Amino acid sequence: MIITLLFLINNAALAEEEPVLYFSEESAGNVERFKPILGDHRFNIKVYNITSLFKNDLPSFIRTLYFVKGENEGGEISLFLVGNRKTGLKNYGELEYHGEIFNSAKGWFIRKEDTIIVETQYPFSSATYSVKYLWDRRNVFFIYIGDEVSDYSVGMLEKVDNFLQQGKIKKAAESLWDILYPQHYYNLYEMVIKFLVAGHREALRVYYRERNSQKAVEIMRSSFEPMLNIARDAYIPVFYSKEEFKKSEFSQFIKFNKYVRILNDFGFLLEQAGELKEAVDILSAVLKLSPKRVVAYLNMGDALWKKGNKKKARYYYTVYIKMMKNRKKEKQIPERVKRRTVW
Asked: Are 230 and 189 in contact (CB under 8 A)?
């Protein structure tokens, strides 16, 4: 039902201008009478009444026009144009067709003036095979013009990648949800990481160039959208040990240290934006994953200080100072940290 609706939407503008007829097979009883005129291709017959495409443009001796798919015992597919005349059914000949498939369940006919387009969708895919014919009214026949294979989801996936490269995370997420059969077009876990990396890059750009921490946080949150393919919530994947991370599907697509850096920076941006509870939660996860990550102690201290828990903040500041001195980087310790640790 979802797929059918989407094609109706995609073809909405077209349907207003040119006749569009979706595949609708004739009943089994009606199909039997076509077998005698199809020669060897009688094994599997699908019959489609396409008269409505032509309105008053059929020769007067044609009552009904049918598009017929015949398949022989070897699986070879052939297409025919059959007219219903006063004297009965007449096979007007076999149509040229180079498609690998003809999906009777998903397809449609389109008429654009004298051009007839037959499109059929590949199973479990948004790829379509399209063949064009020229309507020869005099001889009641479709003359082959050409064919092509196109794939809506591939096009949307390219849009996703382009938007991510441009830092347009929300637009990338919108395009991602337009992809049909997503599991056939990308790895769900890899896509989460692609969004996370792109969102992190854009969030830092916005923060350092525009000094807008709230906007940066919103960008990061937009990058969590693909998680809805895996979990109920659109949130950054959080692990509480290196071993847990390594066992996850995500570890195939991002290195541990890079993941921790993104998680830490998200905690920092949350603290800068005043979202302190969430900042503390994220930074707690960072420190469990990577207890030697020096800057995470500074970020945690700042978040707790702003939250009003100064005693606990001093503990993290003290650890931070000790680690900086051990690395002979005491000159880089911010003055606020020194002031806040003076009792």
From this structure: yes
